[in-house]
Design a protein that fits this description.
Strand 2 and strand 3 form a beta hairpin. The strands form 2 sheets. Strands 1-4 form a two-stranded antiparallel sheet. Strands 2-3 form a two-stranded antiparallel ribbon. The protein is mostly helical and 346 residues long. The protein contains 15 helices and 4 strands. InterPro entries: ABC_transp_permease.
Length: 346
């Protein structure tokens, strides 16, 4: 009797350069980068000042505050939640730092106190969302008003002075003119991307957003992980408050008003799905940059600010539609589906 023939497993197929290139071009970040480059090229043709080094640094510096919070918002959206309170938490963190410094505390202690307040706000929101089983939309909408009201109580409506020792955070420049705040932003983006894609926490956040029931069955602490995402965005909102207040020199009660919309826009444009389970920190960075380039273009070209708001709104809607199309939720709008519905009379 002959011995059975054993077939060796086929060696794993190595990815060719063509496969790698195709995968790269399919990523939303690549398309978003292409849009930014194309938009920048068009604006530079219309106004040569756009490509000046100081203007490009200015664009990056204007998106830092929104971009820093967008890093945290991406984690929250991936976990299938949302945070509308970030603008108010930013202001509360900033005025807390200013008030603590005004009471005679060390500038660095004041800064840490401001950031900690943001983390506490996130902890409170996450706890209510998880334990109270209340929609994060409602809870963060409430926190938006609570934090803004506390800001008014702390300041009495008056601006708070920020420590001069911290002014380098918002106004300092290194390496021949690169703003310190931009370096902080880029470092946070890289750390955020590593946290999302290379750590247990990041993988848990993605699993929860994709299917929280399956994640719970698999032993993932769903509630604790969701709370941590809100703590993370709270801490980043606190840091953004410090950056913003050191940029302008004072902490104001109205700081950050309306920022929540820009933060969500940057995250969604960057590929974060409102349905949860998907998102990219690099994408959020590029989304914030696209908003910054758009605003800078309108200023350089002396266009109406109302048209600016309209264009940003259109970009958000188009990004959301693109996300739905990527998930296959727009098949009913395909020519074949529309023709079938027309023929069937439905």
């Amino acid at each position: 009797m002959s011995a059975p023939t054993v077939t060796a497993p086929a060696p794993p197929r190595s990815r060719s350069a063509k496969d790698v290139a195709r995968a790269v071009f399919k990523r939303q970040e690549t398309g978003l980068l292409g849009v930014i480059i194309l938009l920048g090229f068009v604006v530079s043709l219309l106004n040569s000042n756009f490509l000046r080094t100081d203007n490009l640094y200015n664009v990056l510096q204007t998106v830092v505050v929104v971009g820093v919070i967008a890093v945290g918002q991406t984690f929250v959206l991936i976990a299938k939640e949302i945070d509308l309170s970030v603008g108010s938490v930013l202001a509360l963190s900033a005025v807390t730092a200013g008030s603590v410094y005004g009471s005679g505390a060390n500038p660095w202690i004041a800064m840490l106190a401001g950031i900690a307040v943001g983390g506490v706000c996130g902890l409170l929101v996450g706890t209510v969302v998880v334990i109270g089983r209340v929609s994060s939309f409602i809870v963060t909408l409430g926190m938006l008003s609570i934090a803004r009201g506390l800001t008014q109580l702390v300041t009495g409506g008056l601006p708070q002075s920020m420590p001069s020792e911290l002014s380098f955070i918002g106004q300092g420049r290194v390496f021949g003119g690169v703003p310190v705040s931009v370096i902080i932003f880029i470092v946070l983006v890289l750390l955020g991307q590593l946290l999302l894609t290379r750590t247990v926490f990041g993988l848990r956040v993605t699993a929860i957003g994709d299917n929280d029931a399956a994640a719970r069955t698999g032993g993932i602490p769903v509630g604790r992980t969701r709370i941590l995402t809100f703590v993370l965005i709270g801490l980043l909102a606190g840091l953004a408050g410090i950056i913003f207040s050191t940029q302008v020199g004072v902490a104001e009660a109205q700081a950050g008003t309306g920022y929540e919309l820009d933060v969500i826009a940057a995250a969604v444009i960057g590929g974060a799905s409102l349905s949860g389970g998907r998102g990219s920190i690099i994408g959020a960075f590029l989304g914030a940059c696209l908003l910054g380039v758009l605003r800078n273009a309108f200023i350089l070209l002396a266009l109406s600010p109302f048209l600016q708001q309209l264009s940003i709104g259109l970009v958000i809607v188009l990004a959301a539609l693109f996300d739905q199309g990527r998930q296959g939720n727009l098949r009913h709008l395909s020519p074949a589906a529309l023709r079938q519905r027309f023929l069937s009379g439905r």
